[in-house]
Q: What sequence folds into this?
């Protein structure tokens, strides 16, 4: 078992079971209904799960805890030592590419927000503000090299490196605080600019004068 269910934090969500199989063995996921709960069984090749566990990508804040928090139902030949070793490698991996990729995704959403402003498309503006909020959470976690353990909303505000008004801006972008689309857009611009500055101070650049094709 892995994920939130191992801590019983989502007792009605369902149950996820992961089975690690030999490389080259492809088995489709199975889904069942047991006592009103969905039970999902996923079969992952060994090479795939070890690769994902050892790499540091923009998904690391969201997926990393899955490799650490688990209830083992069956283990053969001490296989989990391989998984723990792979996870340890991700701890010391260079975060530059992950931070850069997350920053570029944020740049893309900011561009779409500006396009939506030109046509006064309020639905699209709100959607992009929502995406920028999630991108800001992800980038903040990456810059602090933190992964989500239980409560991402609480944990992101505990990060030592964050923008000055992160909570208020996120609440605006996610419409937890009622506001106009104009104010939401201004908050998105401000938050993005501050995050880009934080990334720049890390010596990570997303701009280039050379284009390689």
A:
């Amino acid at each position: 078992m892995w994920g939130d269910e191992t801590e019983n934090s989502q007792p009605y969500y369902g149950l996820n079971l992961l089975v690690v199989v030999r490389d080259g063995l492809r088995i489709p996921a199975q889904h069942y209904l047991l006592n009103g709960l969905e039970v999902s069984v996923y079969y992952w090749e060994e090479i795939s799960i070890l690769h994902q566990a050892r790499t540091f990508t923009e998904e690391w804040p969201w997926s990393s805890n899955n490799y650490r928090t688990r209830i083992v139902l069956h283990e053969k030949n001490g296989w989990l030592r391989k998984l723990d070793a792979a996870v340890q490698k991700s701890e010391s991996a260079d975060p530059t590419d992950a931070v850069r990729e997350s920053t570029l995704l944020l740049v893309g959403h900011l561009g779409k927000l500006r396009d939506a402003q030109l046509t006064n498309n309020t639905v699209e503006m709100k959607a992009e503000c929502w995406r920028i909020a999630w991108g800001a959470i992800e980038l903040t976690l990456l810059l602090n090299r933190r992964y989500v353990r239980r409560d991402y909303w609480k944990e992101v505000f505990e990060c030592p490196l964050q923008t000055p008004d992160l909570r208020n801006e996120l609440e605006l972008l996610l419409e937890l605080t009622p506001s106009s689309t104009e104010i939401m857009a201004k908050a998105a611009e401000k938050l993005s600019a501050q995050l880009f500055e934080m990334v720049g101070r890390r010596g990570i650049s997303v701009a280039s004068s050379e284009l390689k094709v």
Summary: The two ends are 44 Å apart (CA to CA).
